Amino acid sequence: MTATLDTGITKDQRGRVARELSKVLADSFAVYQKTHGYHWNVRGPEFFSYHKLLEQQYREIWEALDDLAERIRALGEFAPQGASTFANLTSIKDGDPEKDAQEMLKELMRDHETVIATARAAVEIGEAADDGASVDLLNARLAAHEQHAWMLRSSLSSK
Ligand SMILES: [Fe+2]
């Protein structure tokens, strides 16, 4: 037996918001994986500060993955699962351990901008559905990714 769900948001709208949240989740998961990989593989005279910065960022993003997935479940939809499902939901590519440190940071900064654009589009859909809880979560993710992007941008040499 399936219990019905009545939270004042139509099934259609819940589905629409959940699809947007799934895209934000997939982008976030991709940037999480790349950040963790670059935490391992970054090299150079600034190694330790980059290694620590990336650790701080991947830990923050890791926590958020769960919040996003559980919000999708609260809307009555399944959270995406599996590598190929995630790959189909994001345009963010895998990292390349051969890159030098500055290239890694720049690539991550651009990836955060991708997450930000996806989250901003999701906010619009959430607002149209009057889904304040999803909008609150998405706005918090916007602030976090803008902060991550700022720290990466400020670590780039300005040549
Ligand atoms: Fe580590």
What does this structure look like?
- The longest helix has 31 residues, at 11-41.
- The model has no long low-confidence stretch (mean pLDDT 96).
- The protein has a single domain (11-154), classed as Ferritin, CATH 1.20.1260.10.
- The protein starts with 10 loop residues before the first helix and ends in a 5-residue tail after the last helix.
- The chain has 5 helices and no strands.
- With 159 residues, the chain is an all-alpha fold.
- The radius of gyration is 17 Å and the shape is elongated.
- Helix 2 packs antiparallel against helix 5 and helix 4 (101-128) packs antiparallel against helix 5 (132-154).
- The protein binds fe (ii) ion.
- The site of fe (ii) ion (FE2) has 2 residues, from loops.
- It comes from Brevundimonas balnearis.
- InterPro entries: DPS_DNA-bd (IPR002177), DPS_DNA-bd_CS (IPR023188), Ferritin-like (IPR012347), Ferritin-like_SF (IPR009078), Ferritin_DPS_dom (IPR008331).
- This is Dps family protein.
- Residues 20-156 form the Ferritin/DPS domain.
Please outline what is shown here.
The protein is an all-alpha fold and 159 residues long. The protein has helices at residues 11-41, 47-74, 83-89, 101-128, 132-154. Helix 1 (11-41) runs antiparallel to helix 2 (47-74).
